[in-house]
Amino acid sequence: MTDKPVKPEDLRSRKWFNNPDDPEMTALYLERYLNYGLTMEELAERKPIIGIAQTGSDLSPCNRHHMELAKRVRDGITAAGGTCIEFPVHPIQETGKRPTAMLDRNLAYLSCVESLYGYPIDGVVLMIGCDKTTPALLMAAATVNIPAIALSVGPMLNGWHKGERTGSGTIVWKARELLAAGEIDDRGFMELVATSTPSVGYCNTMGTATTMNSLAEALGMQLPGSAAIPAPYRERGQMAYRTGGRIVDMVWENLRPSDVMTREAFENAVAVCSALGGSTNAPIHLNAVARHLGVELNNDDWTRIGHDVPLLTNLQPAGEYLGEDYHRAGGVPAVVGELMAADMLPNPGALTVNGKSIGENCGDRRSISPDVIRSVDTAMLPSAGFLNMTGNLFDSAILKTSVISKEFRDRYLSNPDDPEAFEGNVVVFDGPEDFHHRIDDPATGVTENSVLVMRGAGPKGYPGAAEVVNMRPSAELLKRGVHSLPCIGDGRQSGTSGSPSILNASPEAADGGNLALLRDGDRIRIDLTKARVDVLLDDAELAERQQALEADGGYRSPPSQTPWQAIFREKVEPLAEGMVLRGAPEFRDVAGKDTPRNNH
Ligand SMILES: CC(C)(O)[C@@H](O)C(=O)O
């Protein structure tokens, strides 16, 4: 933020719409924006041009309600003296896009950078929601670094089935088990799953969407209280109006993403993520946003800052409640306030988009429903953050400790004075097709002592790093009451899954990672107290297998099916480093450096 407020003559948009040095080009730029009824007063005089980065469309049902909310955003912008220009962002729907919406995060990022940089935009409202839309837009705002504020579309209303809450995503994994165990049929599966999505909005569970929207608020990029409001509630429209008004002031204050998303803000977000029981996708996305700002943030930080933070939020999949309950309990401000009461928010002084610090915004906020958002004294778990696992199979992989069963936690994690490591036999699958084909075949040899491994599911291998490491035990084990087995993978897992998996393994099998060397029957040791995963093979055996793999042409991935898949594979970095495009983070503060050249 500069001490000097921006004056109308400094507005970036005036280089297009009111450039006294170049009247010819000014006329050219202006005339097309006049052609749908905008006036000279709105475009060329003292009003900031505010972009609305619209992620809602029929292809993106979780964000679709933004098409309605944008009307209230416009009202807020206009009332505050700005002019609105709404533009589409490449659609991303986690549950709809094949082979994975993750492939499109960087595509949406790239296109949004071009829109923000190449057009006359002074400030932008980022219409965030379904998983990848949030990081894509924050990454773009980070690169371009014009004033930006985020607005969540909000979670769906709570789902209900026979008097019980059914959470989106989370119910799918349960329904899969019921189907495999023969307790429901296909129609029962469909009906049960559909109960979890009763309205517009994104997942009502603490899946990746609610996590990322909450963290956008914890980072300071949304107005306080914005993230948790359910999509259909009246407060959502009111928040849209206020968000539209605030961005106009932010332009005059020159309050930019780099002022808000500082190292201190990321540390706060890491702590809040643990208190929420947030998704394992959060480290990927926040590491990516940080890289685009030039802020240091890595998976070790997530363990160092986050691991000892307690679980305060009793939301599925780590708990029992859903989005409406979260909002009524006070949402992000209550979580932050409870952390602050115990001196557990790393940086209360971090600035937010309303011009106040997060401490000023939330310091006196407390939970209104003490069972839904707990105090530190009544926490669901004393430590709930991620463990950054390492070993001889990968350099980094994320384990969400808040979903480890009590039995497993007591035995393998909570007793560092008498550490015990878990050992099991590997059953390895090359992608989800292989898994679904073989998991129930007795010849595969899955037992209660198995460790299920999925490879070929990372950024280069899949391509895009799909949410396919949700592996259930075999039907035979499910019928015997074994509901989960340790899982490891170089792909991702849905944030709505309560399965304690070791995910996002980097480097992936398709990028020289040692998961490619595993064979069925290998013995694996998982030592949670040391945060290590090792296959019990000596270096000579691993080297021999590596040679054999190379001689055979290396780990095989399916061919790229589209041009973007091929470009993505060539450019993408590992999940542990945010899965960004190589070279892209070098472009920083691009709007601050210069204005793009004229086009005619
Ligand atoms: C439920 C989904 C689609 O898997 C995702 O939103 C997540 O939580 O990771």
From TrEMBL:
This is Dihydroxy-acid dehydratase. It is an enzyme of class 4 (lyase). The keyword Metal-binding applies. Residues 47-361 form the Dihydroxy-acid/6-phosphogluconate dehydratase N-terminal domain. Its EC number is 4.2.1.9. It comes from Halovulum marinum. It holds the Pfam family ILVD_EDD_N. Belongs to the IlvD/Edd family. SUPFAM superfamilies: IlvD/EDD N-terminal domain-like, LeuD/IlvD-like. Keywords: Iron, Iron-sulfur, Lyase, Metal-binding. Gene3D superfamilies: IlvD/EDD C-terminal domain-like. Residues 371-578 form the Dihydroxy-acid/6-phosphogluconate dehydratase C-terminal domain. One of its GO terms (molecular function) is iron-sulfur cluster binding. InterPro entries: Dihydro-acid_dehy_C (IPR042096), DiOHA_6PGluconate_deHydtase_CS (IPR020558), ILV_EDD_C (IPR056740), ILV_EDD_N (IPR000581), IlvD/EDD_N (IPR037237), Sugar_Degrad_Dehydratases (IPR052352). PANTHER family: HYPOTHETICAL DIHYDROXY-ACID DEHYDRATASE (EUROFUNG)-RELATED, HYPOTHETICAL DIHYDROXYACID DEHYDRATASE (EUROFUNG)-RELATED.
